[in-house]
Amino acid sequence: MLGLPISTGIAGFVPALAMVLLTGIFMIYTGLLLLEVNLWYGEGVSIVSMAGKSLGRWGKVSAWLVYIFLFYSLMVAYISGSSALFGGFLKDFVDVSPPSWLGGLFFVILFGFLTYLGTSAVDRFNRYFMLGLVVAYIIIMILGSAHVSTDLLSYKRWRLAPFIVPVIITTFGFHNLIPSLTTYLKGDRRKLVTVIVVGGTIPLAMYILWEWLILGIVPVHGVNGMFEAMREGILATNALRLVVGNTAVVVAAQSFSFFAIVTSFLGVSLSFVDFLADGLKVEKNTAGKIVLCCLVLLPPYIFSLSYPHVFITALNYAGGFGATLLFWIFPVMMVWSVRRKRGELTRRGSIALVLVLIFAIAVMGLELAQELGVSPLAAEYETISETEPVDLL
């Protein structure tokens, strides 16, 4: 959510709105597909185990590699973002600039401990963090709405719209929690479907309002604009406070950033631990959980120290390749295999699965074009980077 406006704002509010809606619908649908496979194979299985049971050995190995890539990318993004957030907080309120390694280490130790405690502990604490997130969100929306400019919202670059989908995918990346939730809710289909549909729709509405606020305040070009924020890899709330400069907005923005990163961090790290425990067959006793937490937290922390401005880049890689493969392509292939074995593969269902597959392949192709520097977005970014920042709006 902290990278969403920065990555999507370059296309403008209306194109970003269209892509958020489309991607959100696809993500809820593929979440239900994954749930279908999970319920078929029972509780206590990870996405990799499901891939192995439905697609065979090649599916299991492929899912394992993609999962590792995706969740290490996400962990790098969260730790990098938390480090920037910690540094910005101390700079704003006590005028101290801490070393870059300190903020990430603080988050890794504090919230890594909650991950070590397990699903029940994360659930209890995350309810309070989510409450804080909602309160901070409401405050920042109220304070920031007075600064929204309709001129900024009228900016449109439709040709860039398809290239903003990867980061949007990561904002709906709840699929990794489905195996853990299936166990936690004891395989109750009705409750699980409700969790996925409602749990996907509420953030969708929040993202739309969030895009309206940030894209209506932060210009695309110029000093403190979207392109500069993307180049520096800063959070959307940092861009907001640089433009607005209001003390109350700064406090609300920092609070919102904290809760947003913590809730994402806990969800991903928890599911990553469950995944590694299942894949590596590590028993989750005291020693086993310490090893698992170290495997989940230390490599991305070390990587974030080497590349401190990698926040947006890591999200793009995670969404464009990892999440698209793991949350779109794999669920489609697994459901196809399961339904075929059960004799439930209908014509209408097959068409829906093929549409998701085509969209997923298109997203990966667009992200590859972006990384190779042959997309319209890469060309425009290069042009802006080579010129003096000016407000083109």
Quick description:
With 393 residues, the chain is mainly alpha-helical. It has 17 helices and no strands. The C terminus is likely disordered.
Compute the CA-based radius of gyration: 21 Å
Q: In oligomeric terms, what are we looking at?
A: single chain
Q: How many domains?
A: 1
What is the general shape?
globular
The CATH homologous superfamily is named: Amino acid/polyamine transporter I
Number of helices: 17
CATH C-level category: Mainly Alpha
How much of the sequence lies in strands comes to under 5%
Walk me through the structure.
- With 393 residues, the protein is mainly alpha-helical.
- The protein has a single domain, classed as Amino acid/polyamine transporter I (Up-down Bundle).
- Helix content is 79%, strand content 0%.
- It has 17 helices and no strands.
- Helix 3 packs antiparallel against helix 4, helix 5 crosses helix 13 and helix 13 packs across helix 14.
- The longest helix has 38 residues.
SSE layout and pairings?
Blueprint: H1 4-8, H2 13-41, H3 47-55, H4 57-94, H5 100-117, H6 119-145, H7 150-153, H8 165-171, H9 178-184, H10 189-215, H11 226-232, H12 236-244, H13 247-280, H14 286-306, H15 311-342, H16 347-371, H17 376-385
Spell out the key features of this protein.
single chain, 393 residues, mainly alpha, Amino acid/polyamine transporter I, 17 helices, disordered C terminus
